[in-house]
Design brief:
The complex is a heterodimer of chains A (about 350) and B (about 325). With about 350 residues, chain A is mainly alpha-helical. In chain A, about 70% of the residues lie in helices and about 5% in strands. In chain B, α3 runs parallel beside α4, α5 packs parallel to α6 and α9 runs antiparallel to α11. The two termini of chain B are about 15 Å apart. The relative contact order of chain B is 0.14. Classes of the chains: A mainly alpha (about 350), B alpha/beta (about 325).
């Protein structure tokens, strides 16, 4: 079987298709959309639009997890970036400077995490837990505990405006995903990151500047989190330091895992993590339009996630090759195994 | 500006307290300790500033202690109030359990304790009274407004619930349902949680709008708090409908931003969760300490309805001054 064919039957695409189908059964208008004022509306667009913040977090998280790390602070960094953007734009600062400052703060947060991990050698889960807890406090200090609202049309555009007929967050997500994939795949950077995840000291002995690379990867995750935080604040025209990005770090990690990147580091795929984020959002949107009572939200979500992870498990992969009819057994089934092992150690 | 706020507040206080206003000197010069939970929300900050203003009006020397969400800080604060020999203690308890011991100490020292805003699980003789809002009533007031507003016409309502399982979500839902049960023309067609936040309120409302024929089939939105309503209003606007006209909006809490929306015609009504818990508490203490009158065990604050006729711009301005 050729590679492009194989990549089409990845379990993530099957999962996404099944969830969309389920949504359609529960809500027949799910696939319908209409155009008004040159902008497309519909549930599918909602999935992309609402999934964008987590997808952007997942892009950064993928790189971190590929180095066998984890970043728990991304939700808090969202809150900080949103708070910075909202307070500065409220003071009348030009939008360009506001965005540079908010993204810069995100980069700084990432540098902090990276330094703790790469220089001090702290365990990533503990190193980033520090900022996860402290970051929300920093954001609340910036907003002084209020929801800081703003009316700057430029900033609002980033959250609820539209370009090329699509909501701006979708465009930002797609651009970032394409750029990040290109940088990691068209240069050796992806390979370096992967090799750190497989064996950091071996990579260092082989001549890689692991320390600088690690710091860079966490800084990238901080940048992505800040981007996501700006979008979230722009969406509600206010910085809600208490609630923005709350628990989204877990959704981002889940998106990466569903996308097939192992928490043990190594092989990673940014586009598949974005697909993972969209799978999660497709569930959320489906729950919203289906009319289930809210008491079932978490139950439905958990059940679907279990099914998705089971389908991706190594055992399911082997069974699939055994029962799949008229399919040539691959001479070496390692590629399928590596995709499938991704499900091990899912966070929930 | 401060003066205007104070003036407006004292006017409203006089209106609420009625005859009590005449006896305000009763607590003059007394020292009262206030153990506040923290300042986790705008409402909490407003409660603190209203309590300070009330203390000033009554001539009370208020000892304020911010517990920063920790029960041990509150217990320590109460012990230090007892050691100081204050005349009374106001307590906004952060959790419901674990108060028996420290409240017994206050009781032994014959210092009356008044609970603000939340109840506790402890023998009733450990505190003088508890001042709180009736969350079921809040929901009922919102529902009654809608019943009157639609006046017998068909109305399909969507509901944004608070956090699943939280007591305000359960009670505010129950109260609203009781109110609309009187008519058979109003029904809740969709109900989903928005976790009391703007972002979720907006996202869930988008789902409602898609599922209900682009919003054309929705007559009204009932949100368990104002923040979710503010988010939902943005979603309605972005769907090309006029919130407040195409879809009626009623919510609970009465925070400044909802008054801005009411002033702009984008929301219709809000039910106040009053931050003035201290006023009724001082009144009860005055009656108890000076005349020996035992107050009722549970004092319910007023759940007042505000609409476009209640000077929404002025209310927004006045409330911002309170620290919401």
């Amino acid at each position: 079987m050729t590679r492009p064919m194989r990549s089409l039957v990845k379990p993530q695409f099957v999962a996404l298709a099944l969830i969309l189908l389920l949504n359609w059964i529960l809500f027949p208008g799910f696939f319908s959309f209409f155009v008004r004022d040159g902008r497309i509306y519909g549930s599918l667009i909602d999935v992309l639009n609402r999934g964008a913040p987590v997808a952007i977090l997942a892009i950064g998280m993928t790189a971190v997890i590929a180095t066998r790390g984890i970043d728990l602070s991304v939700g808090a960094v969202m809150a900080i970036a949103g708070a910075v953007a909202a307070t500065m734009v409220g003071d009348g600062t030009p939008l360009f400077i506001v965005l540079m400052a908010a993204l810069g703060v995100g980069l700084l947060c990432g540098l902090w995490n990276g330094t703790l991990v790469a220089v001090l050698g702290l365990q990533p889960i503990i190193a980033t837990l520090i900022l996860m807890v402290a970051g929300r406090g920093i954001a609340q200090t910036i907003t002084e505990g209020f929801i800081v609202t703003f009316n700057d049309p430029g900033l609002i555009f980033l959250g609820s405006g539209a370009m090329l007929g699509l909501p701006t967050p979708i465009i930002i997500m797609a651009t970032l995903a394409v750029l990040a994939t290109a940088v990691f795949r068209l240069t050796a950077l992806g390979l370096f990151v992967q090799s750190i995840g497989v064996n950091e000291s071996a990579s260092t002995y082989a001549g890689l500047r692991s320390r600088a690379l690690l710091i860079g990867v966490y800084a990238f995750a901080g940048f992505c989190a800040a981007t996501s935080g700006i979008i979230a604040a722009a969406d509600i025209r206010g910085a809600d330091a208490n609630n923005v990005g709350l628990w989204l770090e877990l959704d981002a990690i889940l998106a990466v895992v569903i996308g097939g990147t192992s928490l043990m580091g190594g092989r990673f795929s940014i586009p598949m993590s974005v697909v993972g984020a969209l799978i999660i959002q497709a569930m959320n949107t489906g729950i919203l339009v289906s009319g289930f009572p809210p008491e079932f939200n978490l139950l439905v979500k958990a059940a679907l996630i279990i099914v998705i992870l089971v389908v991706q498990s190594p055992l399911a992969g082997r069974i699939w090759y055994f029962v799949a009819p008229s399919r040539e057994r691959p001479p070496d089934d390692r590629p399928s195994r590596t995709t499938a092992t991704s499900a091990e150690g899912g966070p929930k | 500006m401060k003066l205007v706020n104070l003036l407006a507040l004292s006017v409203s206080t006089f209106a609420v307290m009625g005859s009590g206003a005449m006896a305000q000197s009763g607590l003059e010069g007394m020292t009262i300790g206030f153990s506040q939970i923290g300042s986790e929300s705008g409402w909490r900050a407003a409660e603190t500033s209203v309590t300070r203003q009330q203390a000033e009006e009554w001539g009370v020397n208020l000892q304020f202690s911010d517990a920063q969400q920790r029960q041990e800080n509150q217990i320590r604060a109460i012990r230090s109030f007892v050691a100081q020999g204050v005349d009374a203690i106001l307590l906004a308890p952060v959790v419901a359990t674990g108060w028996e011991e420290v409240l017994s100490e206050a009781k032994d020292a014959e210092i009356p304790v008044v609970l603000l805003d939340r109840g506790i699980e402890a023998p009733e003789d450990l505190y003088l009274t508890s001042v709180a809002s009736d969350q079921v009533l809040e929901g009922r007031v919102a529902g009654e407004w809608l019943v009157e507003e639609v006046a017998g016409e068909e109305c399909r309502v969507v509901e944004l619930q608070g956090t699943v399982g939280s007591s305000p979500a359960i009670n505010r839902k129950q109260g609203f349902e009781e109110a609309i049960a009187e008519t058979d023309t109003i029904e809740i067609v969709r109900s989903q949680t928005g976790d009391f936040t703007r972002a979720q309120g907006k996202q869930v409302m988008e789902g409602f709008l898609r599922a209900e024929n682009g919003g054309a089939d929705i007559c009204a939105l009932y949100a368990h708090n104002d923040d979710m309503a503010v988010g939902a209003i943005q979603a309605i606007n972005e769907a090309g409908l006029a919130p407040g006209e195409d879809i009626l909006v009623v919510s609970i809490d009465a925070v400044p931003d909802i008054f801005t929306a009411i002033a702009a015609g984008e929301a219709n009504a809000t039910v106040e969760l009053t931050p003035n818990m201290a006023g009724p508490a001082f009144e009860a203490l005055d009656a108890y300490l000076n005349d020996g009158v035992e107050p009722e065990k549970f004092i319910i604050t007023e759940s007042r309805l505000y609409t476009a006729e209640d000077d929404p711009e002025g209310e927004a301005e006045r409330r911002r001054g309170l620290g919401y």
